[in-house]
Write a structure and sequence with these properties.
The complex is a heterotrimer of chains A (518), B (371) and C (306).
Chain A (H helix, E strand, L loop, with lengths): L3 E11 L5 E11 L3 E5 L6 H8 L7 E6 L2 E2 L5 H6 L2 E4 L11 H6 L5 E2 L2 E2 L1 H14 L15 H14 L4 E5 L7 H16 L3 E6 L2 H7 L2 E6 L2 E7 L5 H9 L19 E12 L2 E12 L2 E6 L6 H9 L6 E6 L2 E2 L5 H6 L2 E4 L3 H5 L6 H5 L17 H14 L16 H13 L5 E5 L7 H16 L3 E5 L3 H7 L2 E6 L2 E6 L7 H8 L7 H5 L5
Parallel strand pairs in A: 3-10, 3-11, 6-9, 9-10, 15-20, 15-21, 18-19, 19-20
Antiparallel strand pairs in A: 1-2, 1-4, 4-5, 7-8, 11-12, 13-14, 13-16, 16-17, 21-22
Helix pairs in contact in A: 14-15
Chain B lengths: L18 H27 L3 H10 L5 H26 L7 H16 L9 H30 L3 H24 L30 H18 L1 H11 L1 H6 L4 H27 L11 H11 L4 H21 L12 H11 L6 H18 L1
Helix pairs in contact in B: 1-2, 1-13, 2-12, 3-7, 3-10, 3-11, 3-12, 4-5, 4-6, 4-10, 4-11, 5-10, 7-8, 11-12
Chain C lengths: L2 H7 L3 H26 L7 H19 L2 H25 L4 H24 L15 E2 L10 H5 L2 E2 H19 L1 H11 L1 H6 L4 H27 L11 H12 L3 H21 L6 H5 L1 H22 L1
The chains are: A alpha/beta (518), B mainly alpha (371), C mainly alpha (306).
InterPro entries (chain C): ABC_BtuC-like, ABC_transp_permease
GO molecular function (chain C): transmembrane transporter activity
Protein name (chain C): ABC transporter permease
Chain lengths: 518, 371, 306
């Protein structure tokens, strides 16, 4: 149990843009343990794992594996030596079958040909051996999120991994699915596998780990036996201050609130698959309606239809009493919609453009920023400066390219821009995913402020803590339907929500109807 | 995470690793390499490579006429470059400027040979020819524009097919309706003198198209950086999903871009013909539209960059063309070596990146010592 | 020949023979675009590689007095251009579309310059004593009526083309390497994460693409014609790329699309003999490709709308 399998010595990683991701990291991983690495987003956990798995090369420092210093040239060598990695974003090809995905790169052969029969047999057997219930002849695109994760783990087992790195595996799972995963991990431990578990959910980490290493700002803050540290102690090591669990004290009531968003009978199907079924809810001024649910249960489609990225099929969407169903994105924004998108790099910014250019994209036609033909460049820059200051975006100049900022600061630019149109309805989709706690906190307060000033907010997040901390009212979605509605979050626990999120329980029609203001 | 730039404000020293100086170093080194390779190639084929090479680099400086020749060569390259730049900036790989140059040349010829009565006033007559070509160019460009905007059709292959089709149609029109007897090949009647562009520099062939070219550069610069349309072009080109999310309509934008680019191509073609040709005599695609893609690439999709690139390439092309009579191996096509090498190196993100990283790393290490 | 006679020559064995004859360079070009595209680096320099290979094939065959060495020379230049493409897109992280455009422009101009240096003229290599690759009469089959007329007596490279089409199908769909190629094209990070050497797979795919494009070029100047003339590829490479685009990763559809384009080209070769204006007849294949691409896009558009 005390035999060291992997040892990191003084690992330092400096990226080409000068960012120091890791500095003098020293960690020992013991054979057969579950060893967690915890730290804020951006603390350098993922970089460290990439170095172990030879996706990145360390700038300085040594890696010892099974007692010998190793220099893996690429992931293939790491894999051959028994290291496996389950990435945060799944590394699966949707149009391939499960079996094809599992054997890719180490295919069974018959002569020069690929032996698909034996590939299917081998993967099926492997799934059986480790109690994974997956049909290996299915295409990956047809699988649920947790099934995809199982395929990822099977991939490492197929390659005889002894040390398995799991990068934030529970981020996309329900509490119940997380439980099941943990059972699995304990079984791996019994079969002699070493598990490196990366997370920032401290409850889980404390529950599953033998030992825990904390990383802050790219440096280690010590390795501890899980049974010897409390969650409070870990929290302090990670961020140096305590987390806010609720924003209730900051919320103020809004008088004479009228209904802003009204969604009635919304249904949507894609390629014959029902994605949304009879969705009904409304939101008033001065409230935040949260939507909880495991990713991929229709939230994305719902948001895209409300914001206009997808066309509506059935049902009515009203903003301020006006049917916006047939409107373009532009018209919807004109009628008071703002939207913080889930993926800021993909939808929320143009990475190569300046901060100023990114700051005005949704309202550059405002009369103080442009005339009929020309832009009023000076005013645009002043406006950008004002917002940079108000939202304390850390930058030297509004002319800098936005991708020179950190994730948290980029997200602040997005929030500032969406805030600046003074929206009636703000749709916030994963507003703090992947950013540092300081920025996340700041953004939460901005959202609360908007609520207090009379905006209606629709919040979708895979982070249950976030939804519970911010929402006034809450919906739970499962397989494209609303399965639960909570008038207030007082006394509701995570595991209660988990039962709805997993489809174990389902409220009555009448209870769910409560989400609509008559 | 520590950020080495945090001390950057205090030290206001210009570093070679900063964006602009680094870009300039890359550019200069690319030019040196391109010219060096040209020299090596000359060593293989020429008996007097050193002389040839020096001649190639200096010939246009040996007289006002020669330098003027460089300037007039710039004109079509810049127009084609500006048109292509608009496509590239919007994220469209449209190469139809080549075919538009050809067919609009035919249109220009139709007017310039006096098929309809002209006024005799040089300003108005050349204006009619240029505008007519430009408008036809704009209308033709709307076809791939519409297919892209509405159906997201593969604009590059479509534009290339269009080039061949436009050439076929254009050549048919020339041969059938505009060609005159007594001239070798299929050439039109001479252009009416009032349609031709005036010479603006004594002792050279430099025509007023040069001024139009500068106006076009300024106009595109203003369009891109000072107008709302330009803003939507830039944002869409950098990230079309972001533009859509922000509420910008790609349909209207794509149509507008094709319209403007088509007009630039058509007008550029007319200006080239009326400025430097006596009659229409293109029996092949002139290659100017494709060179526009080159200009846009070398000029880093910036109108001023396109102007500089057009000057540089025209300088070498003019020089090579002037020397072609006296040397068996120098020809305007030789310049393609310089062009391709510049293109390859300038579009290489990693060219000199290692060097820059090393410098940055050195700085970082020094700072770590300081701490 | 009058116009009615011409129509009656369509879909005769002789016509099918012509379709095969004009279809081979298109098929090579399609395959060239296909193998590069499915591994994730779109090779739009097919046209440029064809031109250079056509010229070098002629040059080497004239220098060595051997058609076979000429073919080797053509393939060699194809590989060199493919390597340039690979180096700049993979090592230097340049946009493959830009590199493709640059190489096409270069090939179009530089081939003319070489032509000038080697022959003193910018038109054709008629002055060079170049060789052509042999035609092959298949014993037994050549005596079968109709079938023999259609499939016997083609150029050597025609049979190579057919054999390669079958081999590429097997490679892509039945071997580990094919699975890896597709993985690299669909998601390189995933491929990398399971130890697939993405760079190596792509390098092999691009070299293969270069060889295929080179064969298309060699076919044109050492079979179809017996010399090189400037711009002799006449957008055939682009037609191949269009066929690849229509196929969207499905090799059989790519092949079928190419055959349709080849038939259009065959029709042109017949119609050109009539008194219809040659300039307009010549644009038929390009119009067909254009229509094909538009139909594909409209179908995709309607699918997305549903």
């Amino acid at each position: 149990m005390n035999e060291t399998i992997l040892k990191l010595e003084n690992i330092t990683k400096i990226y080409s843009n000068g960012v120091v991701a890791n500095r003098d990291i020293n960690i020992e991983f013991r054979k057969g343990e579950i060893h967690s690495i915890v730290g804020e987003n951006g603390a350098g956990k993922s970089t460290l794992m990439k170095i172990i798995f030879a996706i990145e090369k360390q700038t300085n420092g040594k890696i010892y594996y099974k007692g010998n210093e190793v220099h893996f040239n690429d992931s293939m060598e790491a894999i051959k030596n028994g290291i496996g990695m389950v990435h945060q974003h799944f590394m699966l090809i949707p149009s391939f079958t499960v079996a094809q995905n599992i054997v890719l790169g180490s295919e069974p052969k018959k002569g020069v040909f690929i032996d698909m029969k034996s590939a299917i047999a081998q993967t099926q057997e492997l799934a059986k051996k480790y109690n994974f219930d997956v049909d290996v002849t299915q295409k990956v695109s047809a699988l649920t999120v947790s099934a995809k994760q199982k395929v990822e783990i099977l991939k490492t087992l197929y390659r005889n991994a002894e040390l398995i790195i799991l990068d934030e595996p529970t981020a996309v799972l329900t509490p119940q699915e997380t439980e099941a995963l943990f059972e699995q991990l304990k079984y791996f431990k019994e079969t002699g596998h070493t598990i490196v578990f990366i997370s920032h959910k401290l409850n889980e980490v404390k529950q599953i780990s033998d030992r825990i290493t904390v990383i802050r700002n790219g440096e280690t803050k010590g390795t501890h036996d899980a049974k010897d540290v409390t969650i409070d102690q870990l929290t302090e090591l990670i961020i140096g201050r305590k987390l806010e669990n609720s924003y209730d004290e900051f919320k103020k009531p809004v008088e004479d609130a009228k209904v802003i968003l009204d969604v009635a009978g919304l249904s949507f199907a894609e390629k014959g698959v029902k994605k949304l079924h009879d969705i009904n809810f409304s939101i008033k001024q001065g409230e935040i309606l949260g939507i909880a649910g495991v990713q991929g249960n229709g939230q994305e489609e719902l948001i895209q239809i409300i914001t206009g990225l997808r066309n509506k099929q059935e049902g009515v969407i009203k903003i301020d009493g006006v049917d916006v169903g047939g409107m373009s994105i532009y018209q919807k924004r004109e009628s008071g919609l703002s939207y913080i998108p889930e993926d800021r790099m993909r939808d929320g910014i143009a990475a190569e453009a300046s901060i100023a250019d990114n700051m005005i994209s949704t309202y550059y036609e405002r009369s103080d920023l442009s005339g009929k033909v020309f832009l009023k460049t000076k005013n645009i820059h002043n406006e950008a400066k004002r917002l940079i200051e108000k939202f304390s975006v850390k930058t030297k100049s509004e002319n800098d390219k936005i991708d020179s900022l950190s994730g948290g600061n980029i997200q602040k630019v997005v929030v500032a821009r969406e805030w600046n149109t003074n929206p009636h309805l703000m749709v916030a989709e994963q507003p703090t995913r992947g950013i540092d706690i300081g920025s996340a906190n700041y953004i939460h307060h901005q959202l609360i402020d908007m609520r207090n000033n009379g905006s209606a907010l629709l919040l979708v997040s895979a982070d249950l803590n976030e939804v519970m901390a911010l929402s006034d009212r809450l919906l739970v979605m499962y397989e494209g339907e609303i399965v639960a509605y909570f008038e207030s979050l007082k006394g509701i626990t995570e595991s209660q929500l988990g039962l709805y999120m997993l489809g174990v329980e389902h409220q009555s029609e009448e209870e769910i109807r409560g989400a609509v203001y008559e | 995470m520590s950020n080495p730039l945090k001390n950057g404000v205090a030290k206001k020293k210009i570093k070679w690793t900063d964006d602009l100086p680094f870009e300039i170093i890359r550019m200069l080194l690319s030019i040196v390499i391109a010219l060096f390779v040209t020299f090596i190639v000359l060593c293989f084929v020429s008996k007097t490579p050193v002389d040839d090479f020096i001649q190639l680099l200096t010939y246009p400086l040996q007289g006002k006429f020669y330098f003027g020749y460089v300037l007039i060569k710039m004109v079509p390259l810049t127009f084609a470059g500006l048109a292509t730049l608009l496509y590239f900036r919007t994220g469209l790989f449209n190469l139809s400027t080549e075919g538009i140059f050809y067919i609009c040349g035919v249109v220009c010829t139709y007017f310039a040979v006096g098929s309809i009565p002209l006024t005799g006033n040089g300003f108005i007559d050349s204006g009619i020819c240029i505008l007519a070509s430009g408008i036809v160019g704009a209308i033709i460009a709307l076809l791939p524009g519409y297919l892209k905007a509405k159906y997201n059709a593969n604009e590059m292959v479509i534009s290339l097919m269009m080039n061949s089709i436009l050439f076929g149609i254009g050549f048919y029109l020339i041969k059938t309706y505009l060609a005159v007897e007594g001239v070798s090949g299929n050439a039109s009647a001479p252009f009416t003198s009032s349609a031709k562009l005036a010479i603006i520099m004594d002792g050279t062939q430099v025509h007023s198209g040069l001024i139009l070219m500068l106006i076009a550069v300024a106009a595109i610069y203003i369009l891109l950086f000072k107008t709302k349309l330009g803003y939507t072009i830039r944002m869409t080109g950098l990230n079309d999903r972001f533009a859509k999310y922000s509420g910008m309509s790609s349909f209207a934008l794509f149509m507008a871009v094709h319209l403007i680019a088509g007009f630039l191509g058509g007008a550029g073609s007319a200006i080239e013909l009326l400025g430097t040709y006596k009659r229409f005599s293109w029996t092949q695609l002139p290659g100017l539209g494709f060179t526009g893609a080159l200009m846009a690439m070398l000029g880093k999709n910036h109108p001023i960059g396109v102007l500089i690139a057009a000057f540089g390439i025209s300088y070498l092309r003019a020089s090579a063309q002037l020397l072609a009579n006296s040397s068996p191996v120098i020809d305007v096509k030789l310049v393609s070596i310089v062009e391709v090498i510049l293109c390859l190196l300038i579009s290489s993100q990693y060219f000199l990146k290692k060097w820059r990283e090393k410098q940055l790393l050195k700085n970082e290490k020094e700072e770590m010592k300081d701490e | 020949m009058n116009n009615i006679d011409i129509v009656s020559t369509f879909f005769t064995p002789a016509f099918i023979f012509v379709v095969i004859r004009v279809g081979v360079p298109l098929m090579f070009a399609s395959m060239s675009a296909y193998v590069a595209s499915i591994s994730g680096i779109p090779n739009i320099a097919v046209e440029g590689i064809m031109i250079m290979a056509a010229l070098f094939g002629v040059y080497f065959s004239a220098m060595t007095a051997s058609a076979w060495l000429g073919l080797l020379g053509a393939i060699g230049i194809g590989i060199i251009m493919a390597l340039v493409m690979a180096f700049f897109t993979m090592k230097m992280k340049a946009n493959p579309i830009m590199i493709g455009i640059a190489l096409n422009l270069f090939a179009a101009d530089f081939s003319v310059w070489l032509l000038l240096v080697w022959t003193g003229s910018k038109g054709t290599t008629a002055a060079l004593p170049s060789k052509v690759l042999p035609t092959i009469d298949i014993p037994v089959i050549k005596d079968i009526p109709i079938l023999g007329e259609i499939i016997s007596g083609h150029y050597f490279l025609t049979y190579v083309c057919i054999a390669l089409a079958i081999l590429i199908w097997i490679l892509v769909y039945k071997t580990p390497f094919g699975l890896r190629m597709k993985a690299c094209g669909l998601d390189e990070h995933t491929a990398e994460s399971v130890g697939v050497k993405v760079q190596k797979v792509r390098l092999i795919a691009i070299i293969l693409s270069g060889i295929l494009a080179a064969m298309a070029g060699a076919y044109l100047s050492m079979g179809y014609l017996s010399m090189f003339s400037s711009n002799m590829t006449a957008s055939r490479g682009w037609i191949g790329i269009a066929a690849e685009a229509v196929g969207q990763g499905n090799f059989l559809i790519v092949v079928l699309t190419t055959i349709v384009f080849a038939i259009a080209q065959g029709v042109v070769n017949q119609l050109i003999l009539t008194n219809l204006p040659a300039e307009l007849v010549n644009i038929i294949p390009y119009v067909c490709v254009l229509i094909g691409l538009v139909m594909l896009s409209v179908r995709e558009y309607q699918k997305a709308k549903k």
